[in-house]
Amino acid sequence: MLIAIDGPAGAGKSTVARAVADALGFTYLDSGAMYRCVALAELRGAADPLACEIELGAGEVTLDGEDVSDAIRTPEVTARASEVAARPEVRAHLVALQRSMLRDGDYVAEGRDIGTVVAPDAELKVFLTASPQERAQRRAAQTGADAAEVLAEQFARDERDTTREHSPLQPAPDALQVDTTGLSVDEVVSRIARLVQAVR
Ligand code: CDP
């Protein structure tokens, strides 16, 4: 079984997808971490960033065998990730990798295009949203950054992600939209757990 959770930055995808995967005993797939790895490889000057080996472990992300779980979360990598994600050759490469990972077993996969491109046949598609202000506040609380700066950076990234030519961020026609504004993580997780029960 596959549950796709897509949505913009700061909507709570990672926290919620991880918690839903734990609750169901499914494997969690963070597709954004893969775009971040390509961005990091490029920033480090790799000759061919797409030739680097990306592995998503239980709690860690490795790039050519090195644990880069923290290195891929810097603001510089975040900004570059949404740039590399607009390139069709990067998307084709990572989508193929994601599809092969999702072939066996039960998954909760999160990103921008899981329900639209990677796995349009997912049994459940959720599109998580929240107001831009709340999304920025959550990210600022997480990282200690200034909320106004996060809001500006988030706006630029949302703009790039939703207007790019290839796989723009948009809900799949059959995705169920969950607005998490004002909801706790537990409330969102139990809402999604109920949606899973309904399709199981
Ligand atoms: O955690 P956050 O939502 O801020 O970012 P992320 O999920 O780690 O994704 C980083 C960037 O990768 C996004 O801004 C997108 O441009 C890109 N991305 C994508 O294009 N497609 C995906 N399936 C996942 C991420």
Structure description:
With 200 residues, this protein is of the alpha/beta class. The protein is built from eight helices and eight strands; from the N terminus they run E-H-E-H-E-E-E-H-H-E-H-E-H-H-E-H. The strands form two sheets. Strands 2-6-1-7-8 form a five-stranded parallel sheet. Strands 3-4-5 form a three-stranded antiparallel sheet, with helices on one face. Strand 3 (54-56) and strand 4 form a beta hairpin. Helix 1 packs across helix 8 (185-199), helix 2 (31-43) packs across helix 3 and helix 2 (31-43) crosses helix 4. It is globular, with a radius of gyration of 16 Å. The structure holds cytidine-5'-diphosphate. Cytidine-5'-diphosphate is lined by residues 9, 13-14, 31-32, 35-36, 81-82, 85, 111-113, 157, 161.
Strand tally, please? 8
Structural class designation: alpha/beta
Mean pLDDT: 95
Instruction: Tell me the strand order in the biggest sheet.
Output: 2-6-1-7-8
Oligomer: single chain
What percent of residues are in strands?
15-25%
Main beta sheet strand tally, sense and closure = 5 strands, parallel
Order of helices and strands: EHEHEEEHHEHEHHEH
N- to C-terminal distance? 9 Å
Computed over alpha carbons, the radius of gyration is 16 Å
Bound ligands, named by name, code or SMILES: cytidine-5'-diphosphate
Number of helical regions: 8
Q: Report the uncertain regions.
A: none
What is the helical fraction, as a range of percent?
40-55%
Large-scale geometry: globular
